[in-house]
């Protein structure tokens, strides 16, 4: 396994190198990694130069470099080496940075205080496997052409990522299924109906929520919340917008929307498929 370590802090770099050496020498991890070829650089411009010449399986990137900080290293690395799995090493438990990093393409985020052999080994193994699957999916269309939302395949990828993120950040995951009701003929006669519902969902939920059109008349939203939060506010906004649309429908068939929900806490282990079964 070829790894690029981008870390400007000597102590943090030494800790990462020690953990990688333990992984390489441990029998426990030998099944999937027999040798680690490690290159260490301290600056983002140095990493850019190295990536222009060599290919890496994984990039371990610190969040505070001499020439970049926050999400800047990640964004540059993703653009420079889209085939490599990027794991961000963050200072402290910066949930906001971790959430943003995962949404921008990081395969995982590890607090530097928790950087040890076992968690790093699991993160490396999972990150490489997810990156391989992501590369395989590049040729697959993940968006619905009519609404611009994720389609079912795209939802499974994005929602699966966010469910993992929910466990990392101790958030609850709420799944909302919204289906167009009424007779098929009545809804299909109004061609914009799915497009209208898609727009209502966009307006009712947050930009950070995963919204998808699973089937012609069925939509889903995955929303990450605090442990004590629910989705009552966006659902109320959804109902208000459907009511207002029907009141001002100008003779078009009314929208009838049937909603189901499912949730799990940060320790939950349900898959997206299982949450969908509960919600509908």
Structural features, described:
The chain is α/β, with parallel strands linked by helices and 280 residues long. The protein has 10 helices and 11 strands. The chain has helices spanning 10-25, 44-51, 72-80, 95-103, 117-136, 152-168, 184-189, 193-204, 232-247, 272-279; strands at 2-6, 37-41, 58-62, 64-65, 68-69, 85-90, 108-111, 172-180, 210-215, 218-225, 257-264. The protein has a 5-stranded parallel beta sheet with strand order 2-1-3-6-7, with helices on both faces. Strands 9-10-8-11 form a 4-stranded antiparallel beta sheet, sandwiched between helices.
Features:
single chain, 280 residues, alpha/beta, 10 helices, elongated
Which sequence of SSEs, written as H and E, runs from N to C? EHEHEEEHEHEHHEHHEEHEH
Contiguous helical run count: 10
**Could you say which structural class the secondary elements and strand pairing correspond to?**
alpha/beta
Uncertain stretches of 5 or more adjacent residues: 184-190
Q: How do the strands of the widest beta sheet line up side by side?
A: 2-1-3-6-7
Roughly what fraction of the amino acids lie in strands? 15-25%
Alpha carbon gap, first and last residue: 43 Å
- Major sheet summary line: 5 strands, parallel
> What's the gyration radius in Å?
22 Å
Q: Report the count of strand segments.
A: 11
Work out the helicity level: 40-55%
Whole-number mean pLDDT: 85
Apparent shape: elongated
């Amino acid at each position: 396994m070829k790894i690029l370590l981008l870390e400007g802090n000597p102590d943090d770099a030494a800790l990462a190198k020690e953990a990688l050496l333990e992984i390489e020498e441990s029998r426990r991890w030998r099944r999937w990694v027999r040798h680690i070829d490690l290159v260490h650089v301290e600056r983002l411009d140095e990493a850019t130069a190295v990536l222009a010449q060599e290919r890496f399986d994984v990039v371990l990137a610190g969040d505070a470099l001499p020439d970049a900080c926050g999400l800047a290293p990640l964004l540059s690395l993703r653009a420079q080496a889209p085939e490599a799995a990027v794991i961000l090493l963050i200072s402290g438990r910066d949930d906001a940075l971790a959430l943003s990093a995962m949404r921008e393409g990081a395969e995982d985020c590890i607090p530097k205080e928790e950087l040890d052999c076992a968690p790093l080994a699991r993160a490396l193994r999972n990150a490489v496997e997810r990156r391989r699957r992501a590369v395989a999916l590049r040729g697959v269309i993940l968006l619905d052409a009519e609404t611009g939302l994720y389609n079912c395949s795209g939802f499974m990828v994005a929602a699966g990522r966010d469910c993992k993120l929910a466990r990392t950040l101790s958030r609850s995951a709420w799944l909302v299924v919204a289906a167009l009701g009424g007779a098929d003929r009545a809804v299909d006669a109004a061609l914009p109906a799915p497009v209208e519902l898609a727009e209502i969902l966009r307006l009712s939920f947050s930009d950070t929520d995963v919204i998808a059109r699973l089937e012609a008349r069925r939509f889903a939203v995955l929303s990450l919340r605090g442990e004590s939060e629910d989705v009552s506010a966006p659902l109320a906004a959804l109902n208000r917008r459907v009511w207002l649309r029907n009141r001002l429908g100008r003779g078009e068939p009314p929208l009838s929307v049937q909603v189901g929900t499912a949730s799990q806490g940060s320790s939950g282990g349900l898959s997206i498929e299982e949450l969908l079964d509960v919600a509908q």
